[in-house]
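Example for tutorial group B:
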């Protein structure tokens, strides 16, 4: 116990000295609750992406498409859907973060209790083909064919893109996350939404 207290004292003293000397010190979010709130650049960070996905998730869960799927489920015809990758059309290196947040989006749908979500992650070669379809030459018809191969009635996809402006030393970047649910058989768009946020550097 004495050794633990001594170690804690050393850590506290080191942090205090660093603060006094003006040198940077490492901190955890649990030690500084505002750490995740502060923005450090005009780029997309974890909080920004969570915000964009949360807006889209809320829109889908409250949409006419979800009401239709709820009715289908109550009639014993629970719809099957898959979530395809979101296309990154920004200069930000956020592909891994997008993947993680798509899993959270998937969880929201699973927990709704009205749809069966087919994970594309377990489909091997189909995943690679889906990723190819998420290129600049995105072909909705081919993506629909992949949906049929997965045995789903609907697929959800989207893209994230940005618009930047600069004036002197000031800079503004607007980010958009556009998502939609498409019916595989007809190609009809059953839901779509665009969430957005703005970040800036001002004097």
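The residue assignment follows.
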């Amino acid at each position: 116990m004495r050794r633990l207290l001594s170690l804690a004292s050393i850590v506290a003293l080191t942090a205090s000295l660093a603060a006094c000397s003006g040198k940077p010190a490492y901190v955890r979010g649990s030690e500084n609750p505002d750490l995740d709130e502060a923005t450090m650049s005009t780029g997309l960070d974890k909080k920004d992406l969570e915000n964009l996905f949360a807006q889209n998730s809320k829109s889908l869960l409250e949409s006419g498409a979800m009401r239709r799927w709820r009715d289908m489920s109550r009639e014993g015809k629970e719809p099957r859907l898959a979530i395809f990758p979101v296309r990154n059309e920004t200069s930000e290196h956020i592909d891994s973060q997008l993947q993680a947040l798509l899993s959270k989006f998937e969880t929201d749908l699973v927990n709704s209790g009205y749809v069966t979500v087919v994970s594309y992650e377990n489909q091997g070669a189909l995943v690679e083909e889906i990723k190819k379809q998420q290129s600049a030459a995105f072909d909705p018809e081919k993506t629909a064919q992949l949906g049929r191969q997965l045995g789903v009635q609907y697929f959800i996809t989207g893209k994230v893109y940005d618009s930047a402006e600069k004036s002197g030393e000031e800079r503004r970047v607007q980010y958009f996350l556009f998502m939609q649910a498409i019916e595989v058989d007809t190609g009809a768009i059953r839901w779509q939404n665009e969430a957005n946020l703005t970040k800036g550097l001002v004097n």
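Residues 2-21 form the longest helix (20 residues). Compare this with the pattern of hydrophobic and polar residues in the output above.
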